[in-house]
Amino acid sequence: MESDLLRAEARDKKMRSGASRRKRFPSRAGWRMNEKGNHLLKANGYRITVFRRGLLWGAVVSRPTLDHGFFTREKFATVEAAKMAAFDTMNFIEENVPKPNPYRLLE
Q1: Measured CA angle at 60 (ends 40, 13), to 5 deg
Q2: Confidence of residue 105 (pLDDT cuts 50, 70, 90)
Q3: Are 87 and 76 in contact, with CB atoms under 8 Å apart?
Q4: I want to staple 25 with a disulfide (CB 3.0 to 4.6 A). Which of 29, 87, 91, 94 is the partner?
Q5: Are strands 39-43 and 46-53 parallel, antiparallel or unpaired?
């Protein structure tokens, strides 16, 4: 138990909000198909591509300021499962990969 009720409520609200966003992510507005048949989404400064490899689906998440993309580890049976994994990868990048300092370029 935590003695700070406000912090516990804020953490609970953040967790519920994240779970709700994850649940809605595969059907959110903005997904489109490119000429190769891949599913694309540009959201929150990321470019998400869900692609088919044989019978399975995979995804790559990239940010324009990074020089490479982050691929999902596994391949998935459905496009919705691959989109969920892409959401998890996007959150991983957000929490663990430092954002570049835009003012450093001016030095």
Answers
A1: 85
A2: low
A3: no
A4: 87
A5: antiparallel
